[in-house]
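From the pipeline queue, job 12 of 40. The input is one protein chain; the requested action is below.

Action: predict structure.
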Amino acid sequence: MTNPVKMLLICVDETDLWETGTLYEAIVRRLRQLGVAGATVQTGIMGFGSHGKVHHKCLFGISDDKPVTITVVDSETLIRQVLPEIRGMVREGLMVLLDAEVVEAGGE
């Protein structure tokens, strides 16, 4: 992958669904099918969005609907190609497209 690249952040709720499974899993599987270089899903400890409801870990570690962020990195061309399809999957949430630079580990 050449520099610079784009980073797409997709913020959804852990309990958001797509067909018969979770939305975040469906998005990652679709990104893989579309040939995107990489995607990572992280769950948040706490957060809120435009609705104003605070999501956090509740009693006994059970979530009331934790925030989930999917981080996607690839060329601007490919990110912009897959963006319309992913936008169609995210009914509620936030998507942010950022300029990024890949820094090789162990490189000089």
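Job complete. The radius of gyration is 15 Å.
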